[in-house]
Amino acid sequence: MEEIACPGFKAAGVAAGLKKNGHKDVGIIFSETPAAIAGVFTKNKVKASCVRLCQERITSGKAQAIIANSGNANCCTGDRGMRDTMELSALVSQHLGINDEAVFVASTGVIGVPLPVDKIKSAVPHLIGALSENGFSDFAESIMTTDTSRKIISRQGRVDGKRFTVTGIAKGSGMICPDMATMLCFVCSDIGASPDVLNKILSRAVDKSFNKITVDGDTSTNDMALIMSNGLSEIELTRTSHMDAFQNELDVVLKGLAREIVKDGEGATKLVEIEIKGALSDEDARLAAETVAHSSLVKTALFGQDANWGRIIAAVGRAGIHIDQDRIDIYFDNVKAVSDGARSSHASAEQDATRVLRKPEFTITVDLNIGQGSAAILTCDFSVDYVKINADYRT
Amino acid sequence: MEEIACPGFKAAGVAAGLKKNGHKDVGIIFSETPAAIAGVFTKNKVKASCVRLCQERITSGKAQAIIANSGNANCCTGDRGMRDTMELSALVSQHLGINDEAVFVASTGVIGVPLPVDKIKSAVPHLIGALSENGFSDFAESIMTTDTSRKIISRQGRVDGKRFTVTGIAKGSGMICPDMATMLCFVCSDIGASPDVLNKILSRAVDKSFNKITVDGDTSTNDMALIMSNGLSEIELTRTSHMDAFQNELDVVLKGLAREIVKDGEGATKLVEIEIKGALSDEDARLAAETVAHSSLVKTALFGQDANWGRIIAAVGRAGIHIDQDRIDIYFDNVKAVSDGARSSHASAEQDATRVLRKPEFTITVDLNIGQGSAAILTCDFSVDYVKINADYRT
Question: How far is B158 from chain A (nearest CA, A)?
């Protein structure tokens, strides 16, 4: 595997003993020079102390380090939770010799159990000693929970003959749903940008990526996407054309990570795009796409490789949007299974649809045929393993 | 088993060959005299032809027969679907010698497959020949789909020394969710009431029963609750005290059926009441109760007998209601697991909560501690078998 890096950044990941299996569970990203930072956070009204701290600190627009742990969300842990978060931040800032306010903290894992902060504190010197330009893989590993694979994507872009890098790391396989920031995602770049510009570009990229995926409709208390940029590329995002170039690369990175997250959805065996078109509005289309993508009955049928479009049309019918049931068409990839709200008269439609369902990736398109509104969302199936993973999560 | 009857009504159920396993799949209820009728129907915007027909006919307030089939929903079957529904109705009215408009039709089963109407037509003479005062059990059996047991409850009440009977039959184990009429439910009574009064009382009873249960958050295209009353008891619902007496009995019948439906939820191993109190409003409480009750992560944890209250508080946090996370208390039956938004400091809380989770039935109470609003909803867990049942439903 090619080593992934980003100029001016170092990263590391080690095992501090939070995960029972001895896997890496604490990671750090360090910018050698002060960086600009922007972030998007969960919309859940129950928030972990680390989310509260990051939301406070991000108003300064400046950062130099992110410490993240898996195995414990440090959420609903009372006053002690915030004390633990701040203690970790202070320790990291001392060891790195940077301002405490420049340290950001992220946690993911079980809710309601006090953070074993002593274990992390013991690991911090080792963690900081391990910082390396090639440490992103270790970092990515250290933030995994039920993920089965590391999620890192790095891209390079070019502007006026100068090169810039965008490196993104993410985790998350259950509790993924639109209308939240995301799971955990950290992006490093050597672009030069003000926090305001970074924030605008990040929000757009999140809307096109993490806000268009769903695994189980649940949303977490700890989710955040942070981007740090250090300006080493000597490209300053002041012109629209430069912003567009950076937006493009960031979009590719976040869309790719979003796709990996759904593909790695807990127990998932299928990656399915739900596309709604012909709705009265984009908002109607979005509601319908989410209702279909969240339906347990639809998702279990996807697992069963069953072209059970009745469940899809029933989900559209309860989405609370305007429809004319007798005008609805439904496609599995390009196989038209439903025409004017009833089974396609094409003799082989059912067989052809079933063939699509057997593929690991496909698109379900619902054309409401009453307007111009459209939306798409990426989802996965709902498998026996999803239940097993989530019934046994804490044990 | 004691035979269940209702004065003036006969019922029957036979196998017409719609179900592959040869089980009963067509049933009929017949009122020997013209009855008053009221009904509540699915709010899904995709509706089966039988729902459309019943909604039209119910405006007359009069009925004398209901024919119901399982194994096929006759939904999204185009013009042919409505023709099939009307043909069945006509055949039943001819055989019974009653007005066509007095026949109501209900179907449940797979969506999008044309109704094998010839099979049902062949069975109608046999079905009508089988009509009997003691035929309610057969009828209840004939409307089962993934249900594992018949659902019938009969109650008698007394007013001014006169007796009245309320007999309810229901089906439904998946696709159960509030904000819809219900799955299929048919009630017979010998009470005397105008269709308007019946409708008011039925709506209230449905709000207290079927609209307070959820299995998987999906809602069907075919759901309806119908009540027929023939007046044979010689009790006329004109006085408030009589109406209250009847409402009480109907409430007990529908609540009992609702409970049986959740208990028989597809693959369910737990019957769990989600109670929200201390919300700013009843509406806020209802939203929170539904979000918790529908959360796949909560439901899989219930299956795993895991007192994972982090998932409960996270669901409350994304319900879109006003909360103060540091004031939330959570109980499993009377075990306080969460106090002021954090794990209870009581040493045995986790163990005690786990003991509750091992029970087949229990209550989860979330006290938001910020107001007087409350709501409760009955739900079940999400098991490996739920996925298996729904992955293989059509095969």
Answer: 41
